[in-house]
Amino acid sequence: MRGAPESFRFADDGAIPNSRLPVLVYRGAFEAGGRDPAAAIERLFGDNDWPPQWRDGIYPFHHYHSTAHEALGIARGSVRVRLGGEAGRDFDLGPGDVVVVPAGTGHKRLSERGDLLVIGAYPPGQSWDLLRGDSAERPAALERIARVPLPESDPVHGKEGPLTRLWSVREGSRR
Q: Nearest Cα to 64, choosing from 141, 147, 151, 154?
């Protein structure tokens, strides 16, 4: 069930810096049909050293985080998101899907169906801020993004998961 992720890169669009690190989309990363899918994704993230921080939805405006990488697990409902800022790409996500968004990468909810419930998690020691692409925030945001450490594990597969390879300095994908 937990296969390799789809990988996508987005260029700086002038407002949203995005990242050289790829966004990772895991389809069917966890069993969403059980009694408590939110608890299942929280367990998956926690077991893989990405402590879950919240249960909610995805903001309906372009935003990014300059202080943390973010894993989003869809526990219930479905959502169409745009990743990469205004010129980015749209994705349809449903129960069981996980998207991992590197620091600096824009994301926005375009629409939702059903009783959407998303679980958000971050690597240990990272906490999110909320930036919308304002030009005045950009210089400091770029400095913070450059200092966000790479995670030591993949939120779906753990220490030997694809994220640790796809985001490695050896692969040339470091910011």
A: 141
